[in-house]
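Lab notes, practical 5.
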Amino acid sequence: MELSARPAPRAGLLKTSLIDYPGRVSAVAFLPGCNLRCPYCHNAELVLEPDSSGLMEWPLILRHLERRRGLLSGLVLSGGEPCLQPRLPDMAAEARSLGYAVKLDTNGTLPAAIAPVGADYIAMDIKCSLSRYGLLLGLPAKYIVPEAGVSTPSSASSTLGAAVAQSMRIIRGLGCAYEFRITCAPGIFGPEDAEAILPYIDSRDTIWLQPYKPGAVLDPVWAANAGVYEPALMGKLLALLRRAAPKTSIRGM
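Output from the prediction step:
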């Protein structure tokens, strides 16, 4: 196994998880940095402070995996956005060399980085309709106050949306297990977005809808005004997406 000489990034570590890797007891490595600024992100410190001293060196994480062989069987590479890390394929290979299955969590905006990881399972987020991805680049007051005169940066939306569509195609073609995840947050993903992504959905897709839940998030100003979706609206979103993907379900309610 030929590995890059570049050092692996430090990462946050959840030593044991029963829920992050379907069918496996796993560890989760949270890699810093992200190219999006989703206001509901619960890992704000990884996005805004990627050099946090609270992160672990990668060799220490490998040591934990080595010690826990037999108790753990999976490693989740999450973030932030792990595909920003040039050494990600090597990190996955190092985990596999210890006998671990590897799951990748990604936002899908970096399609060229997905296949080289060689993940056994991929969970990709769909944030909104593909024409609105520019909303997630961090401009103020744009989510729930459209009358404020802030417009979606159309060129960024077009570029990111095309990348997300390409990632969906790539993931389907890899032959690994996969799912698409949608956080249903007011002003970001609603019925219009569900309708808009239907042409990009395949009947084979497994899709999980999860309602936004208030808490410590990246944009507290947004959170103070956002509210949450009622079960009836979640049901409407479910019905819309099941028109294209029968294996769509809701979790986290």
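Observations recorded by the TA: The longest helix spans residues 154-174. The chain has one domain: 12-250.
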